[in-house]
């Protein structure tokens, strides 16, 4: 069942990624579907979107998606055949901003960069090259 949920998530994400930019105009520069989570009964679907722009543009994008929710559900039902068309719940995904903030904090405190050590597969492939360089 878990594999089926993964496939349904991917199909819904792909279809919403095509429907949303075509049907809704946003003030934000870019609005993208980042992730989709669906309940095991396929009745509720949480759609995480990211928006590039000011905070007010991001909120306006989320409001526009909420206002057009029924239309988006209807469009989705035409493209994805499921027993139930899930009810869409849009949420703003702030993972990119959080990641950028963590990187900037790490830069501010000046941690030294850790050397990248090759994994076991990479070490096997790198050894012949190291032997050539040592000669």
Please tag this protein with its features:
135 residues; alpha+beta; GMP Synthetase, Chain A, domain 3; three-stranded mixed beta sheet
Description:
- The structure is a single chain.
- By secondary structure, this protein is α+β, with helices and mostly antiparallel strands.
- It has a domain at 2-95: GMP Synthetase, Chain A, domain 3, CATH 3.30.300.20.
- Helix content is 56%, strand content 18%.
- It contains 5 helices and 3 strands.
- It has helices at residues 2-23, 55-67, 69-79, 95-109, 120-134, and strands spanning 30-38, 44-52, 87-92.
- Strands 1-2-3 form a 3-stranded mixed sheet, covered by helices on one side.
- The radius of gyration is 22 Å and the shape is flat.
List the topology elements:
Blueprint: H1 2-23, E1 30-38, E2 44-52, H2 55-67, H3 69-79, E3 87-92, H4 95-109, H5 120-134
Total count of helical runs of at least 4 residues: 5
Structural category is alpha+beta
- Estimate what percentage of residues fall within beta strands: 15-25%
User: What composes the largest sheet?
Assistant: 3 strands, mixed
Rg calc: 22 Å
CATH architecture of the domain at 2-95: 2-Layer Sandwich
Mean pLDDT level: 83
Question: Quick one: CATH class of the domain at 2-95?
Answer: Alpha Beta
Q: Provide the CATH topology of the domain at 2-95.
A: GMP Synthetase, Chain A, domain 3
* Contiguous runs where pLDDT drops below 50 for at least 5 residues: 129-135
| CATH level-four homologous superfamily name of the domain at 2-95 | K homology (KH) domain
Q: What general outline do the C-alpha atoms trace?
A: flat
Strand arrangement across the biggest beta sheet: 1-2-3
Q: Write down how many β-strands occur, each being a DSSP E stretch of 2 or more residues.
A: 3
Proportion of helical residues: 55-70%
Helix/strand order, N-terminal first:
HEEHHEHH
State the separation between the terminal residues, measured CA to CA: 56 Å
């Amino acid at each position: 069942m878990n594999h089926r949920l993964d496939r349904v998530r991917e199909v819904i994400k792909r279809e919403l990624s095509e429907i949303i930019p075509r049907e809704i105009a946003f003030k934000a520069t870019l609005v993208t579907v980042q992730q989709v989570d669906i309940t095991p009964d396929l009745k509720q679907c949480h759609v995480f979107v990211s928006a590039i722009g000011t905070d007010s543009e991001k909120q306006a994008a989320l409001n526009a998606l909420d206002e057009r929710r029924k239309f988006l559900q209807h469009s989705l039902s035409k493209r994805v055949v499921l027993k139930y068309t899930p009810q869409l719940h849009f949420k703003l995904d702030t993972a990119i901003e959080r990641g950028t903030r963590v990187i900037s904090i790490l830069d501010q405190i000046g941690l030294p960069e850790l050397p990248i050590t090759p994994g076991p597969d990479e070490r096997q492939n790198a050894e012949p090259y190291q032997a050539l360089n040592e000669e």
